[in-house]
Amino acid sequence: MTDPLLVPLRLAWKGEQLNQSAALEIVAPLGAYDVNARVNTGRNYWQFAPAYALSYRPSAETVIGVKLRYGINTENNATHYRSGKELTAEYSAGYKATPALTFGLQGYFFRQTTDDELNGQPTSATNGKLFGSGTGNRGSVNSIGPFLSYRVSPRFAFTLKYQQDFDVKNRAEFSRFWLQAMLPF
């Protein structure tokens, strides 16, 4: 099991062309974690993240979306390590080719805005620069890729995505390919 993302609070406003939501997202440390393991499915610390999302439909066929999220991490009690605060901006722009088929471009920008800490002390200096372009452990990454979405019914859809990371600093670099399903309970 990995750490689940919980959303105990979400407020949403829906308009003709503009939709907005504000939420509190929580990543709970319920995944498997062993301080001696090479790989863990859990992080062994909480993350609390206020989030704001906006989608705009300039036409019936086009939608543009953005989500801003600011993650605040707690300390990992097993290692006394605390990852810095994280700003993430996700984006997408899609075109509805048919009533069931949408394609477009999506990705994200990630910037760690504060230094990591070990035993309450910064792990290294960032020379006073906001996004850690000095020698600090502040991570950053940009990602972009296409998506294709197929709506089987009004309440059931599949989305196929590909993302390629670039300009990666102090993080692993990935190429991601995945299939998502939307099926409300």
What does this molecule look like?
The protein has 185 residues and is mostly beta strands. It has a single domain (43-182), classed as Porin (Beta Barrel), CATH 2.40.160.40. It has strands at 5-14, 18-27, 47-56, 62-73, 81-82, 86-96, 101-112, 117-118, 121-122, 140-153, 156-169, 175-182. It has a nine-stranded antiparallel sheet with strand order 1-2-3-4-6-7-10-11-12, with no helix packed on it. Strand 8 and strand 9 (121-122) form a beta hairpin. Residues 130-135 have low confidence and may be disordered.
Reconstruct the topology from this structure.
Blueprint: E1 5-14, E2 18-27, E3 47-56, E4 62-73, E5 81-82, E6 86-96, E7 101-112, E8 117-118, E9 121-122, E10 140-153, E11 156-169, E12 175-182
Short overview:
The chain is mostly beta strands.
Key traits:
185 residues; Porin; 0% helix; elongated
> Strand percentage, roughly?
over 45%
| Shape, per Cα inertia axes | elongated
Order of helices and strands: EEEEEEEEEEEE
Q: Mind telling me which CATH architecture this is? A: Beta Barrel
